[in-house]
Design a protein that fits this description.
Elements lengths: L3 E5 L6 H14 L2 E6 L4 E8 L8 E9 L2 E2 L10 E4 L4 H5 L3 H12 L4 E4 L3 H6 L7 E2 L6 H6 L3 E2 L4 E4 L2 E4 L5 H15 L4
């Protein structure tokens, strides 16, 4: 049976951070489902850098349907979870259904790939204490407040937790995550 991977996201997620792992994991042979607060067409965004701006800009990105609502997810059916960034994690961390899902992945030591602002979700369930992580560099203080050791690197692997800064680091992030995933949940 093909292992299933869950991507948890919502509106205003970074387009590339949802669709790159979605396509890469399917290419590898995994079955991938996208879960959101409700089953609906999600509106993703594109974050980019403009000369003269102190931070990134945000533009409308792709739309994509959610396969499941968080309330429909049985974490036991999934071998791993991917947590994209963008602005979505800022409000998703308040969702009690999502917090239950992520806690079950942490408790079972299943592979977790998180990128950009995604670590705000694992921080919300106290899943980073004592771990090494990276995230979007502006979140360094948030990661430290969550009890993690922040490292400014393309990808940081701490056991089954694989984190990355942002979409420019995709290749290294997915390479490291697939190494963990192949060991824990190989495609059959």
């Amino acid at each position: 049976m093909t292992a299933k991977i869950l991507i948890v996201t919502g509106d205003a997620a970074e387009s590339l951070e949802v669709l790159y792992p979605y396509q890469r994991l399917r290419e590898e042979g995994y079955e991938v489902h996208i879960a959101a607060p409700t089953r609906k067409k999600l509106q993703f965004v594109v974050h980019d850098f403009e000369p003269g701006f102190d931070t990134y800009t945000e533009k409308p990105g792709y739309t994509w349907p959610a396969d499941l609502a968080f309330s429909e997810v049985d974490p036991g059916e999934y071998a791993a979870v991917v947590i994209p960034g963008g602005r979505a994690p800022e409000y998703l961390r308040n969702d009690p259904e999502l917090r239950k899902i992520l806690k079950s992945f942490i408790d079972a030591d299943k592979p977790i790939a998180q990128i950009c602002h995604g670590p705000l979700l694992t921080a919300a369930i106290d899943g980073l204490r004592g771990r090494r992580v990276t995230a979007y560099p502006a979140l360094e203080l948030d990661m430290q407040s969550a009890g993690a050791t922040f490292q400014d690197a393309e990808a940081v692997v701490d056991g089954t937790l694989v984190s990355s800064r942002a979409w420019p680091d995709h290749s290294r992030w997915m390479r490291e995550f697939l190494t963990v995933l192949r060991a824990k949940a190989p495609v059959t």
